Amino acid sequence: MNEKASTYLKLRLVLFASLLVLSERPLLSNDNINRSLSREQATEDLSIYFELIDKQHGNPYQFISRSAFLDALNTTIDNLPEQIEFKAFEVTLSKLNNLIRCGHTIINLDANLIKSASEANHFFPLPIALIKEQVYVDFEDSTIPHGAQLMAINGQEIGEVINELLLLTVTDGFSQAKPLRELETKFGYYFFLKYGAYNSFEVTYLTPKGIQTKTTISGVAGNQMLANNYYRPVYKTNERYYHFTHLDAIDSLQTLVLTLNTFQANPDWFAERLSALYDQESKKFEFDNLVIDLRNNEGGDRRLLTLLYQFVAGEHLVDPSNTSIRSNQIQFEDYLLGINGAVGSKEAIEKAETYLNQHFTYANEEGFESAEQNWYDTFDAGINWQGQTFNGQVYVLTSGKTFSAAADLARILAELDHVILVGEETGGAHIGRTANMLLNYDLPNTHTMVQIPVIYEEFVNANKQNEGRGTFPDFHITQTYPDLLAKKDSAFEFTLDLIQQKQLQGAN
């Protein structure tokens, strides 16, 4: 692995460390995780979880009614055994959390248990590709060949495995792509959560030539499992997948490719790099086409979004939303760990409450509304694009992992005449979502961390026909099996073909 890839991988592991969990099975030598919860303890944690959702979440009943969610909670409690193993409780809570269909409402296990899990060689090692309801190996360093179709793992039929694991994913509305990509890139984690830790895995598969084979493969450590899932899918060989943000040119197509794998990026750096490709004297760009790849971007800092919009649209971003909260107080302080990543100190709580009371001043039956609609004024980077608007053709690549602020950018750019979306339905709700201020709570018996988003935004200009779904592309292109075998990126190659066809038409 080269130095750039290594640096990128370390950063990714930091971001996704919270995904790692420990098993209660004897395979892991951690007595803390081997314990069981009493029915009373599990009931208390489930009840507190409901209170957090019911009183602090910005819009918990966008996709399920309160009565239906409360019924699901009560049914879950009624079905608890007298003793429930720790990991079984996490599966139960994840299924309940899935019903809210909010991608910013997240369940993570006790952080003190992460290190032991990351060191244990008990995770399924292979990245997978989900293509037309089939599961394929997207990996080369294994006795199971790249492109093999998985049929069973440890005797569990793979179709049943996928159906069970999808119930544990973090979803957003009814996007059909987000749960699949969530599972695809975290398969080893979800398999562990549902089925436990194993030293080895008995795998039944079909080779690319259709020969059914059975073999045993060894488990890997949690960090290696994450590295495989995020870094090792075969088509991700280009340097642009190793960085948070990357610019590279395809000179033969007069095309600039901007890969944004996150919005946790520096707007100053981005502005400088773009300026280097713009001639102030002639007021011309060094490229005619721009490809913005958002397929692995799960959001972050909106300041980069506002700068990008200026560059592509030539004007200040106005994206009005009706915005509300259910409570202008930070509640359940005894369980609060942090706010937006900061420690939940008294000072942080006061600052958060001051912000809520400043912006949400109109009381209604559900909580409080804000008179402010264009929230992007709040995310002004203080950096403005000084050159000409880029009026060439813009292609935006999307997938089910295009989420939060990245899904916002795809939705907003899709309204421009010179922008074409290619790929999948985004993983972020098109009409509205609950996000922004994020509170992290600790459940007292399991020390499960629950992330609760506080502010709900309903986008005024969004197409209401997409209610509950993500933003749809102009060209729906997902990875094909022939391209998987050929190690090609289907959506990216399709986009390059579009650019080439346009050039040929222009030449004629």
TrEMBL record:
Gene3D superfamilies reported in the protein's UniProt record: 2-enoyl-CoA Hydratase, Chain A, domain 1 (3.90.226.10)
SUPFAM superfamilies per record:
ClpP/crotonase
One Gene Ontology biological process: proteolysis
Superkingdom of origin organism: Bacteria
Q: Tail specific protease domain: which residues?
A: 256-476
Q: Which InterPro entries does UniProt cross-reference here?
A: ClpP/crotonase-like_dom_sf, Tail-specific_protease
UniProt GO MF annotations? serine-type peptidase activity
Q: Name one Pfam family in it.
A: Peptidase_S41
Q: Which residues form a coiled coil?
A: none
Protein name, per record: Peptidase family S41
